[in-house]
User: Fold this.
Amino acid sequence: MTNFEQLKEYGQEHLLRYWDELSDAEKQSLKEQINEADFTILKELANKDEKVMDENSAGALAPLGALEIDEIDKKKAEFEAVGIKALQEGKVCALLLGGGQGTRLGHTGPKGSYNIGVTRDFYIFEAQINNMLDVCKKAGCYFPLVIMTSDKNDEETRRFLKEHAYFGYPEEKIRFFRQEMAPSCDYNGKIYMEGKAQLSLSPNGNGGWFKSLVKSGIDKELKEAGVEWINVFSMDNVLQRICDPVFIGATILSGTNCGAKVVSKNAPGEKVGALCLKDGLPTIVEYYELGDDLANELDENGKLKYRFGVILNYLFSMKRMYEIVDGKMPLHIVEKKIPYMNEAGEMVKPEKENGYKFEYLAIDTVRDMLTCLSYEVDREKEFAPIKNKEGVDSVVSARALLAKNGVIC
Ligand code: UTP
Assistant:
């Protein structure tokens, strides 16, 4: 049975409301979107509340200690040598999660094309690539940079980077692939339309990156080139070290399947996921799932027990990623403002949340890795996330942190 025939079963017949008005090309396009759409995710809406309870169950949580900054400093030379060697041998690549929409920033283009400069042009992409070039200089080699985009920003991302000559990174070292899209729906589970022949589709979260990488075939190219480790990082943090040799070396020597950079939270309620143990496995618990009591609990030294927060910079073993790629990931149902076409055929940009998007999250991969090195970095030197224009985690706060680190823009 094609998805086209499943419209009735899933209560989505409204998607064909304008069928008779459509041109042949539009009909074909709509048909393809319907056939490609994964309607089964809509079933998850039925047990949404149970799922939330399950995710919130904090019964078997325990703190996971990190390799802390002072310990790292003592072994820095050893870690760095191992990391540099891995980079020189081509065992590590960087993978940028660039499929997000940056809605909080309110920028229509790809988030990386946002100009955060005041005295000069300085783009988010440029900040990330500069950070990579620092490492390349140190290691004396370039490493592959793989960029995940989405249908919404793929062309613009490629064009923008080309226009800026990839900010000095060698073009032949860069690859792009697209992530999957998922339909968005209203509170009754009806998929929104964005046009008479256009379903409302949005990127399906940052968790499906490896599946999409495999679908693109680029994984094979990386494997053949000898890549064993993938440093996954987000677009937001303009201070992060990418393919940081010390982090790579520490992770390799730890014998774990992954490394996660963490910072010491600046407050119990800071909006970062806590890396801890759940039923003995490394797990990232979102700040809103941890609960006030655990978030404030202190250890014997008077420090927060769950103080290590992730900054979306992970080193994943490619071998382990292959082992789990066909496994089922938890699907997160997120309330969002979803632009849609109303019954009168007009586009509406809602002021407040009006439905759900479905997302897989990279944080869930850490649990599947079974073992994880929690690796502390200095937040003043490595954590300047840009989520908003102003206020907390914003362009303004990131500029100030960049300036503290000698990057005046
Ligand atoms: P965020 O969760 O901050 O989402 O992404 P966002 O889309 O950038 O911003 P908002 O929530 O709309 O304001 C964290 C990282 O994950 C990537 C983003 O590009 C960013 O690097 N991401 C997010 C994807 O690659 N794909 C997605 O579907 C979602």
Remarks:
- The two ends are 56 Å apart (CA to CA).
- The chain has a mean pLDDT of 94.
